[in-house]
Amino acid sequence: MALSISSSRFFANNNYKYTEKRINVAVDLYVLGRFKTIGGHREKLDKAGEVRDLIAKWKTRPEFLLARFDENGDAEIDMQEWKKVMSMADQEVKNNFRERLVQPEIHTVSKPVDSRRPFIISVESQETIANKYRCYSRAGMVGFFLSGIGFVWTIAIRINGIRLMLSV
Q1: Are residues 41 and 101 in the same domain?
Q2: Do 106 and 38 form a contact (C-beta atoms < 8 A)?
Q3: Model confidence, pTM
Q4: Residue 156 belongs to what domain range?
Q5: Which of 18, 84, 117, 168 minimizes the number of CB atoms within 10 Å of its CB?
Q6: Largest CA distance in the chain
Q7: What is the distance between the alpha carbons of residues 20 and 34, in angstroms, rounded to a whole number?
Q8: Tens of pLDDT, residues 79-99
Q9: pLDDT tens for residues 35-84?
Q10: Which of 51, 17, 41, 31 is nearest to 123 (CA)?
Q11: CA trace torsion 143, 148, 154, 155 (10° rounding)
Q12: d(CA 100, CA 51)
């Protein structure tokens, strides 16, 4: 079997049971969830948004802005200096983009944002998983109908018992 339990323990502080499982190398996987690629040349980059965020970060540290960009020493950033702030932020974002574009892509699978969508990582095939849940649903339907029949039978016995008591 491809899955093996490596650790299982109960924690005293809460009611959760944590089980760690391992998937062996060279085993086919069935994965259903939210796939996302981070980094690499296919990453969508928002230059304007990142420049805006960088400037907002710099604005939280006015002493940094003044020390770096206040050329005339009046303790204020004028229009000419502000253009340099924007130009420097733009240049830093471009440099950051170049570095990120040469980094390798990282592929991730995570739980979908929409909680109604399934999140499955399994070494079993899609058909095997579907058959298992199909059996569960059939067993649930049979159990539902059997409990309904039992309920009706119980009510019928109860009603017949009341009729017998009233007729005596």
Answers
A1: yes
A2: yes
A3: 0.46
A4: 125-168
A5: 168
A6: 112
A7: 21
A8: 888 889 899 999 999 888 888
A9: 988 777 766 778 889 999 998 998 898 888 888 888 888 888 888 888 89
A10: 31
A11: 170
A12: 15
